[in-house]
UniProtKB/TrEMBL annotation, chain A:
Pfam families: DUF7990 (PF25952). This is Uncharacterized protein. It comes from the Archaea.
TrEMBL record, chain B:
It comes from Natronosalvus rutilus. This is TRC40/GET3/ArsA family transport-energizing ATPase. CDD domains: ArsA (cd02035). Residues 4-310 form the ArsA/GET3 Anion-transporting ATPase-like domain. Pfam families: ArsA_ATPase.
Length: 98, 324
């Protein structure tokens, strides 16, 4: 293995590491943040669809009930998130990496 | 006049009688007419002495007249069953219970009956090609008529829901890293499709009610009925569904001048109060008084219904619908 090959290999490893660091430190948290935001908006959507889950009678529940068969995963995740969540600040805090 | 005619008013003022009489009149004038009642007391059955159900059935002995009766309870159950069927096709057994609870809650809310009736009304209007005129005898409360004013509101609501759904799906798509499948995909999202369907339904309802429907209120010449009618007029006007006319029903007959017994004096006094009420209606209420129908001693049916029909001063000529 001559010098040129070794330099080449070193550069490849370095590039992989840098890419990994960039993804892990910069891009991945950003994606996570977007996903959390998407979840939050989905929560708002579900709350708007089924306010009677919280004892608020709503004239549209009758219509939004038609969506329930298609909202299985969303509904389950929604309930889980509601149980987990203590306060809004805590939830928003999760979206930042210090 | 518009192909769809609604009769509303307080409970017990005689909406069904007036609706049936008007239907009869339309049929006599050669229109293919359908009378739709939402009265759970099944009064249309009593008026025509013939059972009716969910499907339009020809009224015996009267050409061109059909009638149907909607039962809100049945409609709610049917809606519930439809969703349950979808549910068993789509959802894993473990989730069915959880969702079922939510479903039952949604159908127990105060507005469920009205929503069910509203749906059926709109459906009847949608499938009304076979008729020149459809007469709706609305449920004995202001809530049905009030609900008819809601399409705009509901459409706006659906719009907001769709916006939220779209935003979250969009974000989920953006959050998918590299070749990962996003958690939700915009294309063919069944929830958005359902919402879109509903939105079109409400749009149709709003257009039809605004352009192809006429509203009449039935009232009795007493204070309670007057007050409620005044509120209903304001309510409907606010929703851009102006009331076309008022029908005063159950007016007390006036005794002959030479009669002076206790009964005659009672009647004369009643007629006096009623006349004052009618005067109030003529002077202070916006919509014109289109009919004054006296008390009948017998149940209004058969030939008596024809008499009542003659007393109605509501035109029957039909303009073709603009939005169906």
């Amino acid at each position: 293995m001559d010098l040129a090959d070794r330099i080449e290999r070193f550069r490849e490893t370095l590039e992989e590491w840098l890419r990994g660091l960039y993804h892990g430190m910069i891009t991945h948290p950003a994606y996570e943040k977007i996903e959390k935001e998407a979840e939050d908006i989905e929560d708002v959507f579900l709350l708007a669809c089924f306010p009677d889950a919280f004892g608020i009678p709503s004239p549209v529940s009758y219509y939004t009930a038609e969506l329930l068969p298609y909202l299985e995963t969303e509904f389950e995740a929604w309930e889980r998130r509601l149980w987990d969540r203590d306060m809004l600040i805590e939830r928003k805090g999760q979206q930042y990496h210090f | 006049m518009e192909p769809f005619v609604f009769f509303g008013g307080k409970g017990g003022v005689g909406k069904t009688t007036v609706s049936c009489a008007y239907g009869l009149r339309c049929a006599h004038d050669g229109l293919r007419t359908l009378v739709v009642s939402t009265d759970p007391a099944h009064s249309v059955t009593d008026v025509f002495d013939q059972p009716f159900d969910d499907d339009p059935t020809p009224v015996e002995g009267i050409d061109g007249l059909e009638a149907m009766q909607l039962d809100p309870e049945e409609e709610v159950t049917r809606h519930l069953d439809d969703i349950r069927r979808d549910l068993s096709e789509q959802v894993s057994a473990a989730m069915v219970n959880e969702i079922n609870r939510q479903l039952e809650m949604a159908h127990g809310t105060p507005g469920a009956y009205e929503s069910a009736l509203f749906d059926r009304f709109i459906e009847v209007m949608r499938n009304s090609e076979g008729y020149d005129r459809v007469v709706f005898d609305t449920a004995p409360s202001g809530s049905t008529l009030r609900l008819l004013g809601l399409p705009d509101l509901l459409e706006g609501w659906i719009d907001r829901l769709m916006y939220k759904r779209r935003t979250s799906i969009d974000l989920f798509e953006k959050a998918a890293i590299g070749n990962h499948e996003p958690r939700r995909v915009m294309d063919g999202d069944p929830v958005l499709a359902r919402l879109q369907e509903r939105k079109e339904f409400f749009r149709f309802a709003g257009d039809t009610l605004g352009n192809d429907a006429a509203f009449f209120l039935v009232l009795n010449p007493d204070e309670l009925s007057l007050n409620e009618t005044e509120r209903s007029i304001a309510d409907l006007e606010e929703k851009d569904l102006p009331v076309r006319g008022l029908v005063a029903n159950k007016l007390t007959p006036e005794p002959d001048d030479d009669e002076n017994g206790r009964g005659a004096r009672y009647l004369r006094e009643r007629v006096e109060t009623e006349r004052a009420h009618l005067e109030t209606i003529r002077e202070t209420f916006g919509p014109p008084l289109v009919a004054e129908i006296g008390w009948r001693t017998a149940e209004v049916k058969g030939s008596l219904l024809e008499d009542v029909a003659d007393e109605l001063d509501i035109e029957t000529a039909v303009e073709p619908p603009t939005h169906v």
